[in-house]
Each structure stands twice: as structure tokens, then as C-alpha cells.
Specification:
The protein is an alpha+beta fold. The protein has 24 helices and 18 strands.
Length: 663
């Protein structure tokens, strides 16, 4: 054998070994090993990743499959143009699609509707998924294919973030392509279940517990898409676009109204067919005429909420909204005259109040999805993650002494989550079962109703004994922002990325009907997720609130509760130290956020060079520390707006979201 033959044989053996290891790791769902091998492999990487993706798909490891397919997509994009046009002028999907090489085979038709046809398909690289084909009408004399393609392409680019959505109650979009000038194909995960419309038909109508279960999940999905930047509007929520999975307890939001947006982007369709697009019994008043021009309806978060309310009506009544109208063209008149249809007799007061929050005639009067998640009706059906006990698996942070320790636990309901144990410094003479303490825990159980993409999900708050409180939270993989900074300044693009998400979370909690104050924002209470680098706000200051309610704690009012370097001047030297806890406010949260911006920009905590608590307090009263001179003017102004000494001068989170530095 020649040296060349030997080298080739060795390379082939090495490639085969890499392929074998990658496929095995994918089949096992071992994400870390898959990532390591993908970085290591240099030869024939695309083909290996495709084979491994198929193994992952066969074993149900969708996360591993998507990462491998994304790698293939990036490899192909670097080698080919976005699209390829053949001599006949037909444009086909680019070879960079991560689901197929050239084609896919339809296995069966899953459903047909006015907006398109849904099929189960098998692609030529062995991926089984669902497709929805949207064929837009073209007028030969009025439409130039190239112009139609350009308009649709612009709309598709605006919707590319559909494929980035990651939520348990939203169908996973895998790819969007445009095989013909007026044809769009959406690739989605294949779901096992039936539409909520079919589910209701089989059941006649749903009991309130099931309505609460499904409504919580729909609201969670809406809160997620509405919190995106820019917000994502569904446009066509109705019971046919909600899938009840085979276990009959979980739902997925499907069929985002892309077809509506595409039709509006092609001029002749809107001109020749001025009636509003969508499912009319679920359309909000502002979409059906009146104040607005019906040929150009304004879809919004509020119109999504109205449509969700109409879905609640169908769940409660078993009938479509306005079914008594007969002809759908009578619906706008009926709606303008009487408003939303009335729920049937027998519905609870809580359900009626919840429904009214969704179907207020004026868009501004409807509650947001986040607010609805905290509504009393949904709270009736909340189930804590434990029955009565849990087992610590490992210590995640703390010293193991029990005070503010965080553990990974497994509950007696077999739910894996995180717990934070808060031990109050109770002294002899403090009253056990203090009514104020109980009220504080009860009020902060509202934390369990928070639903925001940048806030840790609180599952339950339990009072273990009169001096111990245990907070149950979702289990997250990541590091604190403090660890991420690691005493090195961050580039402004990262400061912007993280600040935007923190501000979004603060805007959400500060604008609830009953505003939530964090009380202890600092870089140790901000988590950066390992997988996505997404921010999660953690460590809400329940311990501070509880400590302030224990009698002796207020006697020692010279020592403020919280993280001193991030505390605002009004907390350090209050006019009324006995009532210090009342001074925790939206403004003190904004100051603490500004101090986190300082740490991101400088790499160190505020006043890091001062060792005594007295010295830090004195410096805080003089004002916030100056940013490094290398910071841009926009960042410097943004920081200044967070750290005015007078809290009334500080900008709100809503105002900060509009600042040039973030925009």
C-alpha cells in the first residue's frame, strides 16, 4: 500500500469513527457530546450531521435534532446562494434548507382550510414533519411574478423569527420556503392530537377546570410571543388553531396567521377582496369596521386577546361565537350592537370576570396575556409541584447551612425543580405564625403567576415552619451575570442585549395591576442561560420583605436589607427608617438595574474599592459611580437615567425600553 493509500485509509477510518460516535450520541440525546463532536469534525460534516439528526429524530430527541439540522443549514448557506432559479424561471427552495436536499413526499393530508392545506411529509433526507402549503391567488394581467415574489419575500423575512420561537405551548416551526412566486410552504413539527374545535365537539362543552387548564397554557404562549422584540401577533387565534395533544392535558398554538399577512402584502388581493382576513366569529370589533378601515385592519396584541376570549366562549358553551347569526356577514352588525356574546348560565363569577377582561369592546380596556395569567379564575386551578415532601438531589448554591441555599430537588409528584430555602433570623420574643408574615407569603404567591420570557418561573411558595420559607422554581441551566462578567467589562453589544431583556422583565412586573417590586436586583440575581444566552431575572427579594416584618429586624433599622452596593440612596438614608420597607419601589429597582449596567460596563461591582459598609453608604449618598470613559454617549445617558439620586427623576422601565441605547 502506498503512503497516499495508507493516509486515505486512515482518514476514512477516522471519519467512520467520528460518524459512529456522533450518531450514537445523537441517539442517546447527549447534547454536550454532540456539540463537542460537531466542533471537532472537519471532513464530511454535513452528511454526518444529517445522519445523526435522523437518529435523534427516530429517538425523539428534537432538541439534538434541531441543533444538528441548524449546523447543516449553516454549512450549506456558506456554500450556496439563498435561492436557485432554473431556466424556466421557476424558483425552488435553496439547497441550504436543513430539512431536505431537493424534495419531500406527502404521506397523508392532515387538514384543509381557507388558508392552506396541511400534510404529513417525509423529506428526502428522512425527516418526518408536517407542512402547510399556502397558495396565494394571482391575476395574470395584474401581477408580475417577480413583483409578487418580492412582496411575499419581504413579508417572509419579517416572519423569520417564527422559526426561533421556543415555547412548550407553541408548535415548533422548522423552516419556511417559497417554491413558487405565490406559494409558501411552512415546515412544522408533527403533532399527535386534534384541534380544540374537534375536542369541544366530542365533549359538547368543557368543564371549568379544563377551561382553566387550557387557558393557562394559551395565555402563557400569548405572553411569550407578545413579549418578543418586536412583538409577534398571532392574527388568527381560534379553536381550530389550537391543538389538544394526545394526553388531553397539553395544548399547542398552531397556524400563526402568516397567510393573512401574505395576502395583505399582495396588492390586488386586498383591493379585490376588501373584507377582513381571518376567522370572522373570532375577530375583534376594531377589525370589522367602525372606527377603522376594514380593508386595512390593525392586528394587535389586543385583537389576539379578543380572539382568545372567543375561544373561551366556545370552550364554555360548546358553540361558535355568534352562531345564532346564521350568516357570518351579520356578525359585524351584531358585534357593534351588543358586543361579545354572553357566556351561558351556570358559569362561575370568576370565569365571567376572566372572559370580560378578554372581550372589552375597547382594545385598551382588555387585559394583557401576562395580566390574565395572574387572574383569580386561573389561580383556582393552580397545582403546586409537591404533595407534602421533596428530596434534595444536589446543592446548586449556598453553603449548605440552610439560609438561602438553592437545591435541585425531586418532589413527591416526581417533578424536578429548584428550591430556595429562606430562614428568618427569629429571636426570642418574636411571634410565631405572625399574621404579617403569613400575609407577606400569601401576597408573594402572586410571583407564581408571573409569566415572562425573562423571569424565572415560580412554581410554589411553602411555609415549612414559622421561620422557614421554601420557594419552588423552574430548574435552569446557566451562570449568574456576575460569573459571566468575571471581572471583565462586556462589549456594549452584550450590555445592550442583556439590558434590553432585564428592562423588558421590569416593565412587565412594574406595569401589572398589582405591581411587583423585585427589591434585590444585582448581577448575582440575573441568570444567563447556557443554551441561548437568554436572561432570566431570579432572586426576587421575598426574604427582605419577610425580614422587615419580623419585629426585631426593624429595631436594627440601621442595617438595610439587600445587596448594599446596589441599593438606592433613599434606602440607605431614609427620612423614616422605621418604615424603610415601604421605600422599596419601582425607582429603587431601576437604580439597582443601573448598578448592574455599571458592573457590565466596568467589570466590577459599584464601590468595589470601598471595604466598609459605612463607607459604601456614604458614597451612595453622594451619587452613582461614573462609568468608564470608554463608554459611548448613548450608554452613558442611559445609565444616568437609571441612577438619578432623586428617584422621581429616574426613568421607568417602559421609558428605558424606548431609549436610543436599546433601540
Amino acid at each position: 500500500m502506498s503512503e497516499t493509500d495508507g493516509a486515505n485509509a486512515g482518514a476514512t477510518a477516522s471519519t467512520n469513527t467520528d460518524s459512529h460516535f456522533l450518531e450514537s450520541a445523537a441517539a442517546d440525546g447527549n447534547l454536550e457530546v454532540v456539540k463537542y463532536l460537531v466542533k471537532k469534525i472537519e471532513v464530511d460534516k454535513s452528511a454526518m450531521c444529517l445522519r445523526a439528526a435522523k437518529r435523534a429524530a427516530d429517538e425523539g430527541h428534537s432538541k439534538v435534532m434541531n441543533i444538528l439540522l441548524k449546523e447543516v443549514q449553516e454549512l450549506r448557506v456558506s456554500q450556496a446562494d439563498h435561492r436557485e432559479t432554473n431556466p424556466a424561471g421557476r424558483t425552488r427552495s435553496r439547497s441550504g434548507s436543513h430539512l431536505f436536499d431537493n424534495d419531500w413526499n406527502k404521506i397523508r393530508t392532515l387538514g384543509r382550510g381557507a388558508s392552506g392545506t396541511v400534510h404529513e411529509v417525509l423529506t428526502d433526507i428522512g425527516i418526518r414533519c408536517a407542512t402547510k402549503t399556502i397558495a396565494l391567488p394571482m391575476q395574470l394581467n395584474a401581477d408580475e411574478p417577480a413583483e409578487v415574489r418580492k412582496k411575499i419575500d419581504r413579508s417572509l423575512n419579517a416572519e423569520k423569527n417564527l422559526c426561533e420561537l421556543q415555547h412548550d405551548n407553541i408548535v415548533k416551526y422548522l423552516y419556511i420556503c417559497q417554491p413558487e412566486p405565490a406559494t409558501v410552504v411552512l415546515f412544522m413539527e408533527l403533532l399527535d392530537g386534534c384541534s380544540l374545535d374537534t375536542f369541544i365537539t366530542k365533549s359538547s362543552k368543557l368543564d371549568e377546570e379544563t377551561i382553566g387548564l387550557f387557558s393557562t397554557q394559551i395565555c402563557s404562549a400569548l405572553a411569550y410571543i407578545h413579549s418578543q422584540e418586536p412583538p409577534l401577533i398571532h392574527r388568527d387565534i381560534n379553536c381550530r388553531n389550537i391543538v389538544v395533544l394526545a394526553d388531553k392535558t397539553r395544548i399547542k398554538l398552531v397556524d400563526f396567521g402568516l397567510s393573512i399577512k401574505l395576502e395583505q402584502s399582495v396588492s390586488h388581493i386586498s383591493a379585490s377582496n376588501p373584507e377582513p382576513k381571518g376567522t370572522m366569529p373570532f375577530m375583534a370589533p376594531e377589525l370589522l369596521g367602525g372606527k377603522d378601515d376594514s380593508s386595512n385592519p390593525h392586528y394587535s396584541k389586543s385583537s389576539d386577546i379578543w380572539a382568545f376570549g372567543c375561544s373561551v366562549y366556545q370552550m364554555a358553551s360548546g358553540e361558535l361565537p355568534f352562531s345564532e347569526c346564521g350568516n357570518r356577514y351579520n356578525i359585524p352588525e351584531q358585534l357593534q350592537k351588543n358586543g361579545a356574546p354572553r357566556l351561558p348560565n351556570g358559569c362561575s363569577t370568576e370565569l365571567r370576570a376572566f372572559y370580560d377582561c378578554c372581550t372589552a369592546r375597547e382594545p385598551k380596556d382588555r387585559k394583557s396575556a401576562g395580566d390574565l395569567l395572574g387572574h383569580k379564575f386561573l389561580a383556582l386551578f393552580e397545582s403546586p409541584p409537591i404533595l407534602c415532601d421533596w428530596e434534595n438531589i444536589r446543592l446548586l448554591s449556598g453553603e449548605g447551612a440552610g439560609c438561602a441555599d438553592i437545591h435541585e430537588v425531586l418532589t413527591d409528584k416526581q417533578i424536578k425543580c429548584a428550591t430556595k430555602t429562606l430562614k428568618l433570623q427569629v429571636q426570642q420574643g418574636d411571634q410565631p405564625n405572625n399574621a404579617s408574615s403569613i400575609n407577606a407569603i400569601t401576597s408573594d404567591r402572586n410571583l407564581c403567576r408571573l409569566r415572562h420570557d425573562n423571569i424565572v418561573k415560580f412554581l410554589h411558595i411553602a411555609e415549612k415552619d414559622h421561620a422557614t420559607c421554601v420557594v419552588f422554581m423552574e430548574l435552569l441551566e446557566g451562570v449568574t451575570l456576575e460569573t459571566y462578567i468575571d471581572k471583565k467589562p462586556l462589549a456594549e453589544r452584550y450590555i445592550r442585549k442583556f439590558s434590553k431583556q432585564i428592562c423588558s422583565a421590569l416593565k412587565y412586573i412594574h406595569n401589572l395591576d398589582e405591581p411587583v417590586i423585585h427589591r434585590n436586583i444585582n448581577c448575582s440575581n440575573i441568570l444567563i442561560l447556557s443554551e441561548t444566552k437568554k436572561v432570566k431575572l431570579i432572586g426576587f427579594g421575598l426574604a427582605i420583605k419577610l425580614d422587615n416584618l419580623v419585629s426585631h429586624a426593624n429595631d436594627n433599622s440601621a442595617t438595610p436589607k439587600g445587596t448594599l452596593a446596589f441599593m438606592s440612596p433613599e434606602l440607605i438614608a431614609p427620612d423614616d427608617p422605621i418604615n424603610r420597607s415601604a421605600l422599596y419601589s419601582k425607582g429603587s429597582d431601576i437604580w439597582a438595574f443601573g448598578c448592574s449596567v455599571f458592573q457590565m460596563a466596568s467589570g466590577i461591582r459599584p464601590f468595589d474599592d470601598i471595604k466598609s459598609m459605612f463607607g459604601i453608604g456614604k458614597k451612595i449618598n453622594e451619587g452613582a459611580p461614573a462609568l468608564p470613559t470608554s463608554c459611548s454617549a448613548k450608554l452613558s445617558e442611559f445609565y444616568k437615567f437609571c441612577t438619578f439620586k432623586n428617584r422621581n427623576q429616574r426613568k421607568s422601565a417602559t421609558e428605558l425600553m424606548e431609549h436610543d441605547f436599546l433601540v
